[in-house]
Amino acid sequence: MRRDRSAPSGTLHRLKLDCRALRGNFLNEETLRAIDVYAPHGCEGRELALLVDLVGFTAGGPAHTNWKNFGENVPERLDRLIASGAMAPCVVAFPDCYTKLGGNQYINSSVMGPWADVIRTEIVPYVEQQFGCGGRGRRGVFGKSSGGYGAITHALLYPDFWAAAACHSGDMAFELCYLPEFPRLLRTLGKKNFDIKAWIDAFHASPKLNNNDLHDLMTLAMCASYDPAPEEPSGIRLPVTTDTCELIAERWANFLKWDPLELVKTHAAGLAQLKALYIDCGSVDQYNLVYGARRLHRALIAAGTAHTYEEFADDHSSVDYRMDVSLPLLAQALNR
User: Which of 202, 18, 22 lies closest to 112, judged by CA?
Assistant: First the structure.
């Protein structure tokens, strides 16, 4: 719902791209992907900066362009911010990176798929070619939750590709945000004799899903992302024992390699190339993510990495309003 009806509407385009890197993927995911692309009012997009929206778990990019009750979708938010002068005009892409395991962490995985490659080598170049936007030094990435994880991880691993990034409530400090989920997951899988594929098949066949089901699927997706096991029927193995929920050191070590708090130890230097890095988190985030955000902030200060860090008085849910802060910051930086 538009909050500023006087703001002229940009144009939303629907592209389709057959992603070569997804062919033959383990999950048998569809290779033809939708990419919604926003161009500001009166612009075709040519010579504008490009922002890429990585959405949170259980969603795909086009979810952010759908009609939204009691609030703005992202294109409506962009219309308002640009019309008010708060934000420089930008092209914004919303790629569909949804998977059968409920979402994405936007990294390369032999089970989830080579999503970092899909985004950088196929989706972004395709959008830039179609709209004449972006290019080196003119690309930014942003997201919240799993999307925030994707944004900060891409900034850490690919600073030569991205020039700005915003991480809203991103996954980090894995021992705080993921490990608490495993006891319940074990109780759930126990009902299927710990046959993970059988549980996933039952999940997809169920006529109704509850919140615990979604959280359990998310935990399994994290296993497939950070410690993939393509030799298993489900592609998934757990980092804990099924009887006592004790950590399996080798499995958990594979998880931790992907924690931004570990990645920053070896990749902080690359962040100095960014024109802007923005990180925020709710002070009462129910997934404990604020503690990881504070640790990352502290690590970036120690490394001398320029960034903006903010906490706000809210939890993890329904915090799209934080884009009013991050998107103008990214757009201003990319237009320098």
Answer: 22
